[in-house]
Amino acid sequence: MTTRVLVPSGVLGLGFDRTALARGVAMKPDIIAIDGGSTDSGPFSLGAGESKYSRAATKAEWRHLMKARAEAGVPLVIGTSGTCGADATVDWMYDITVELAAELGQSLKIARLYTQQPAERVIEALEAGRVRPLTPAPEVDAEGLRAMTNIVALGGIEQVQAAIETGADVILCGRVTDTATIAALPIARGEAVGGAWHGAKIAECGALCSTNPTSGVILVEFDETGFTVEAMAETALCTPHSVSAHMLYENSDPFQLYEPGGYLDVRGARYTALDKRRVRVEGSEWVKGTYTVKLEGAKEGGFQTTIMAVLRQAHYVAHAQEWADKMHGFLTDQITERMGLTPPDYTLEFRMIGVNGALGALENRAGAPVEVGVLGIVTAQTQAIASEIGKLINPWVLHYPLTEDEELPTFAFPYSPATSNRGALYEFALNHVMELDDPMSAFRIVVTEVK
Description:
alpha+beta; ten-stranded mixed sheet; Alpha-Beta Plaits
């Protein structure tokens, strides 16, 4: 027996080749699985409980997948719904699914796997010595856990399998590992455990394991000794190099991958090209361990206001950092004098966009830019204070001179008003694992019939 898993894309909202999807459906998969989450854009989504992807794009792509599911007659599962997998984003994805079911005339059984954790559950586990830090990890205590806006636990195959066993047509998961939605069914059906985890890792980002990453769609066929992976787009090829290289993606160790309940060891894996399109992999091993789930949490870290000026005069472009440093000292005095505030009541930083805005002191490329964007970032405990500081510094960001004996300069603001209130700033506040005796003890499933 084999198990075929169709993966339409690395994440819902990123797009995929429609023709390739149709080709995948024609190959009769046993399940369609796609990821819906990412921490690539930082902690905002988890902190706020909001998706970073547009609702319109998500709904448009989910429509195609719901139609593909109906044609194939198999379950459709999404992991880490709404970017972060919080309860609110699972329900956001549920609302989209219900809307589409009505529009498409589909009757569905929908399972929602909730993975958000109440602070008190984590506190109890922490006090019992069942929460351990990863590297790096901040210090955590009961007060800090209660201050977090959202805490999620990354589910594994056991939680996804429980959702599949409900007989649901569509499964909307909270935060789960990128591999869990792909590995769950093959392992439940008795395919090679090491091969299932390895194939899931290779398939997690769709066609990123092929020569045409943007095509999105791949099919993985699992069996009792390993797996075979094939890209569905005509222009995408899977090669031993492209497949094996994906073990390096977002993984600190190219030979081991830790998951709930153990780790994958691919040191003995063998990658064989079956033809120009397909790669066969065997020899991967699963090593059982203590059952733990990774915890992610976010908390508010203040509120921000930004302001930007564009320097184009050669004299100021050449001395942009010197100008910003001098202005920073002047403005710090002004904020104290006029508002009675001193750091750490707030922070004020200027980033030189076009010079070293991304890497800061690590930048090593030479050459003078034609213009420099100076991005000012104000962070304070309330939006009102951050906004007030932004308005206070506005005239000097527009006119501050580098030296006292030169004419008053005027720089360019790219938009009006020059300041923008960004709202709450969030910080990641957990990078720990929590030990569970029962894999389902920290998770719940809700099943709904939609007609």
